[in-house]
Amino acid sequence: MSQNNYKSALDHPVFNILSQAAKTLDVECYVIGGFVRDHLLNRGEAKDIDVVAIGSGIDLARKTAQLLHEKPKVSVFKTYGTAMLRTQGLEIEFVGARKESYNRDSRNPVVEDGTLEDDQNRRDFTINALAISLNEGSYGELLDPFHGIEDLENKIIRTPLDPDITYSDDPLRMLRAIRFATQLNFTIEKESLDAIARNKDRIEIISKERIVDEINKILMADVPSKGFALLHKTGLLPYIFPELVALQGIEEIEGQLHKDNFWHTLEVVDNIAQTTNDLWLRWAALLHDIGKAPTKKFDKKIGWTFHAHEFVGSKMVYKLFKRLKMPLNDKMKFVQKMVLMSSRPIVLAGEVTDSAVRRLIFDAGDYVEDLMTLCEADITTKNPKKFKKYRNNFQKVREKIVEVEERDHVRNFQPPVSGEEIMETFGLKPSREIGVIKDAIKEAILDGDIPNEYEAARELMLKKGKELGLTVV
Ligand code: CTP
């Protein structure tokens, strides 16, 4: 096999069909972009395939569909001159090669026919502009006019054109550059990095949904801090997360310093990335301290305080999700809950009493383990002795959670005596007293005054009823 033959990338039988379709229509076609990049990086089997035709991408899609056994439906996007079909678990996107210029105020491209090289030129990065021929005679040959292979080897993110043009054509690419650098552990070449800093305000024309897609990918990387540090360095961070920018910096009053909560947060995110692949728990790590900026105060006696920052932070989560047009659903509520409870196990760690653990399980419910994972990730002390001490304390809390839950079952707490039973017993209509009795039972169970059992709860109900002047009917 010649050095630039990449037939091995074209193992899948669909590539032969694509080749036949192109031959029938007498157009050239190439597989390009992420599929080629990920194959060369051994990033596993890609499910998305981008195909560029030197001619009509839509016609090529239709012809390919005809030749495929199952005759898949072709979705056509006329304005963009693109088409898409799904076959055998793959999603194939077709585009006609373009010499493209963008309208500065929107992402809608003005499309003109172009050559393969024109098309490669207008792509975001050299590593995404690699194309493999599907044409008879050159099948499997790699076309790499911008030295994408070299950049892959040297782990460099570089734009094929002058970066100012590439980024201002489509400002989302600034985030894509940072996302790829983070996912692949590549370096953004200096000129490109400078261009991002120069064009940062253009991010404002990009939809929040697309921005969040990239942030999610950064968060799911092995070392997400790399991406956030780049967002910070290029000046993009204030456009996306002003709340995180506000955490940056160390203040000193009367010789007392507080830690830099921005860099601390990034450490926490990296820590949690090692222990969970849950995107929302990673979001919780990113946002767990955002309430610290607005609550920061200096007190002459106790030094720096961040009173109620967890509560304030959890309210900020809602505003942040809303601003970024993220779903305001149970995922958002989960992040809020994690932020709200983020200090609870820390308070516990000194002395782990059963009742405190019962309350923790009661309040955190099914998320108590996630909360522990967040708190463990929050240990960023560089003092090995302290680190070990905190870790051991949390380990004790975890053990106690298992022990207490096995005995008391408060995780999804159901009151052992129902409201109906209270009403029937005392002949009550819905009223305040029922709440008072139910609450007394719950509190007694959480405090460990009575076991979480029917008999004990009923006994307490009768006692409380008497105190309230009620009579059994
Ligand atoms: N592309 C581009 N500019 C963009 C988005 C995409 O030039 N803003 C080009 C790149 O050549 C890219 C290809 O379109 O490789 C496909 O884009 P997409 O599917 O979004 O990304 P992938 O590179 O496939 O990577 P991933 O799947 O990780 O997003």
From TrEMBL:
Domain Poly A polymerase head: 29-158
Signal peptide: none
Gene Ontology MF annotations: ATP binding; metal ion binding; nucleotidyltransferase activity; RNA binding
Keywords: ATP-binding, Magnesium, Metal-binding, Nucleotide-binding, Nucleotidyltransferase, RNA repair, RNA-binding, Transferase, tRNA processing
Domain (tRNA nucleotidyltransferase/poly(A) polymerase RNA and SrmB- binding): residue spans on this chain: 185-244
GO BP: any one term: tRNA processing
InterPro entries in alphabetical order: HD/PDEase_dom, HD_domain, HDIG_dom, NT_sf, PolA_pol_head_dom, PolyA_RNA-bd, tRNA_CCA-adding_enzyme
Stored Pfam families: HD, PolyA_pol, PolyA_pol_RNAbd
Coiled coil stretches, renumbered: none
Domain HD: 264-349
Recorded superkingdom: Bacteria
Cofactor: Mg(2+)
Cited Gene3D superfamilies: 1.10.246.80, Beta Polymerase, domain 2 (3.30.460.10), cca-adding enzyme, domain 2 (1.10.3090.10)
Family to which the UniProt record says this protein belongs: Belongs to the tRNA nucleotidyltransferase/poly(A) polymerase family.
NCBIfam families recorded: HDIG (TIGR00277)
Name under which the protein is recorded: Poly(A) polymerase
Organism of origin: Constantimarinum furrinae
UniProt lineage: Bacteria, Pseudomonadati, Bacteroidota, Flavobacteriia, Flavobacteriales
